[in-house]
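Sample intake — ATP-dependent Clp protease proteolytic subunit
Collected from: Dissostichus eleginoides
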Amino acid sequence: MAEFERDEIKLQNDDLESRIQDLQIWIQKEKDFCEIHDSTKEAQEELKHQNRVLMEKCQGLQEEEEEVKVLAENCRKTKHQMEILDKDNKVLSR
């Protein structure tokens, strides 16, 4: 009878050890998942920050583009006025 009880206890012990190993594996997987989740969250925050910076730079570039368009138009008008003045000077110098 004692041998039967020992065998029964050994089986229960083996079953418990197997459950413990399964739980340890599950816990490690959960830890790994949490680490991945945390690093993904950090990466998302960094990307949001970089996106804000890029949007600000883009807005600045759009403003500069408008200024360049105005300057280009002013240059075109000035060139046209200079051409008129050159023609007037040629006429006057005759």
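Post-analysis note: The mean pLDDT is 93.
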